[in-house]
Amino acid sequence: MKRLAVIGGTGVDELEDLEIIDSHSLETPFGEPSRPVQEGRLRGVPVFFLQRHGSPRAIPPHLINYRANLWALRSLGVNEVVAINAVGGINPAVRMGRLVIPDQLIDYTWGREHTIDDGSSGELQHIDFTEPYDRELRLALIDAAAGDDIPHEASGVQAVMQGPRLETAAEIQRLAQDGCDVVGMTGMPEASLARELGLAYASVCMVVNPAAGLGDVPISLEMMREVLQREAAVVGKLLSGLLAERYS
Ligand code: HPA
Predict the structure, then answer these.
(1) What is the pTM of this model?
(2) How many whole angstroms separate alpha carbon 158 and alpha carbon 72?
(3) Over the stretch 143-199, which tens digit does the pLDDT of each residue have?
């Protein structure tokens, strides 16, 4: 049986219309997740929800306990994860407020606890990460978006930067040359840990600002929050469509 969890990012503190039926405070071998995991129903379909930045305390991207978050979800029987990521737009074709369902990523993060492999198994473990996102789950998201006439990009390369500062204009030019379409800070090691733990994982990126050097005004959290608030209903609609199609 498929059991879905949604990991919320900046501006997605709760799942719209989620009828909460339980809250799980969990301890994992890696410590506590960002927040108790909410269990609920969205339009009658069971779903779990975890805000990766915690709430009300805001955990910065480089200090999120990604290992505890994913371990906690798996221990609740979750086997599929849709991650919501706020991102800056690099490719001029992706406009503000647009959803991008990436098919690739480049990891520029460093110093994060990025694996559950502590070497104790005595065997080398190299997960295949050629396709960092689960193809079937991505296609289900794309189908749900198309079915509900939600404008979206069905592919794209997500750059994952260390943060918490935003990039320089030169860094964004380099990312563009690397082939990146959008840039965020929380996509890794979340995606590879999910793969290590055997969870199908896909990302929905929302473009909340033009990346550094590409817009007319300085990037601010207010700017990002405004777009996120305006477009929150679109993410809710996409998830409802996905749940109805795939999990009911
Ligand atoms: N850069 C990195 N992360 C982000 C951005 C950005 O421009 N916008 C939202 N998250």
Answers:
(1) 0.96
(2) 25
(3) 999 999 999 999 999 999 999 999 999 999 999 999 999 999 999 999 999 999 999
SS (H, E, C) the chain: CCCEEEEECCCCCCCCCEEEEEEECCCECCECCCCCEEEEEECCEEEEEEECCCCCCCCCHHHCCHHHHHHHHHHCCCCEEEEEEEEEECCCCCCCCCEECCCEEEECCCCCCCCCCCCCCCCCCCCCCCCCCCHHHHHHHHHHHHHCCCCEECCCEEEECCCCCCCCHHHHHHHHHHCCCEEECCCCCHHHHHHHCCCEEEEEEEEEEECCCCCCCCCCHHHHHHHHHHHHHHHHHHHHHHHHHHCC
- Residue of 10, 87, 222, 223 best suited for mutating to test ligand 1, as the one with most atoms within 8 Å of CB: 87
The minimum-distance atom of ligand 1 relative to the CA of 209 is 8
